Amino acid sequence: MSSEITTLLRAAQSGDARAADQAIALLYADLQRLARSRLRQSGQLTLLDATGLVHESYLRLQQQQGKLEFTDRQHFLAYAARVMHSVVVDLVRAREAERRGGGAEHVTLNTAIAELAPQRDDEILRVHEALEELAKLEPRLAQVVEMRYFGGLLEAEIAEVLGITERTVQRDWQKARLFLSLSLQ
Asked: Is residue 29 packed enough to be buried (19+ CB in 10 Å), middle (13-18) or exposed (0-12)?
C-alpha cells in the first residue's frame, strides 16, 4: 500500500486530480488521526471537529496541487500536519481579531506532549511566533516541533521523514522545548 500511495502522490504532483483524490482516500484514516491528535492537544480551540479539520486542510492542499512534491506517505503526512497547524492558527487569529482579547476563552494545550502550562488563544499565537523564530535559527528543530507537537508523529516517523536518527530527533526535541520555553517567559 505504501508504494501505491507513493505512486498516487507522484501522479497527483503532475496534475492528476483523480490520483490526488485516491491518495487522500487511502490516507484519510491517517489524516483523521493527525486531526484528532491536533484537536486533542488544543482542547476547545476551534469549532472544527477532526473531520472538519481534515476537510479544511484538504482544501488548502488542493490549492497547492501541482506545486508540491511528496516523496512518500510520511512526507505527505508531515506536510499535512503543517497545514493543520496553519488552519488552527488562522482560526485562532480570526477569533482574536474579532474580540481583541476581551473575554477570551481559556484554552489548555496537551501538556503531556509539550510540557507547557495551560494557554489562551493569545499565548498560542506567541507559541506560533516563537516557533517561527526558531525556524529562522534552526529549521530542523522547528520541523521536529511541528511534526511531533502539531502533527502527533512519533519519533521514529519524524526520523524517517527527516532522514536522521531517533536519538537526533530526541535531542532536537529537547533543544526546541528549551528554546520555546525561554522565548515564552
From this structure: exposed
